[in-house]
Amino acid sequence: MELFGLPIQTIYLYTLIFSGILIILYIFFGDMAEGLGEAASFLNPVLLLAFITFTSAAGYILELLTSLNSLVNLLIGAAIALILDTLLNVFVLVPLSSAEESLVYTEESLRGRVGTVLIPIPKDGYGEVMIENISGRISKPAESYENTFIAEGKKVLIVDVDNGVIQVMEHEQI
Q: In this protein, which residues make up the domain named Membrane protein NfeD2 N-terminal transmembrane (predicted)?
């Protein structure tokens, strides 16, 4: 079968090469395209490009190896691509996105944690507190919740967070 004056195998091959180039470009410049995902969240560019790549690869192989009708090959290729795309999403993309979020902290998650004063906190001023956790250390500006002086090296309890500044009080260890 021919389409646009070219054999269908050639079209599949050109589509495979073009989608492969687009995937490589997306790897390098994908951060600029992240805003597009906000407008239509169901159109993940990775899944869309992978679907086109899988469809063209399966269609090319089916055209070479079988004597089926080209439309049947396209439908079989699309079905294979849908299955592979679903597996890619479920077993690769979803776990990667949740792993990425597990390293992030929110201001609300800091409440109730214990930190160490790095820079002394004066009575009416700001100091700095270091909070240690499994993924590393976080250093945040701090002020005294009770408006008292807190010396360097003291353990403090984070009571509240206000505009990125944590409010702390001395932590009494039992």
A: 1-101
Considering its fold, how many domains does the chain have in total? Answer: 2
Give the model confidence (pLDDT) of 121-139 as tens digits.
998 899 999 998 777 788 8
Provide, for the chain, the percentages of residues in helix, strand and coil under a 3-state DSSP scheme, each rounded to the nearest 5.
Answer: 50, 25, 25
* Alpha carbon separation from 155 to 12, 73, 114 (Å, rounded): 65, 68, 7
Question: β-strand 6-7 against 127-133: which pairing, if any?
Answer: unpaired
Dist. CA 45–CA 133, nearest whole Å:
34
Q: pTM to 2 decimals?
A: 0.55
Last residue of a domain, one of 102, 136, 158: 102
Give the pairing type, strands 127-133 and 136-144.
antiparallel
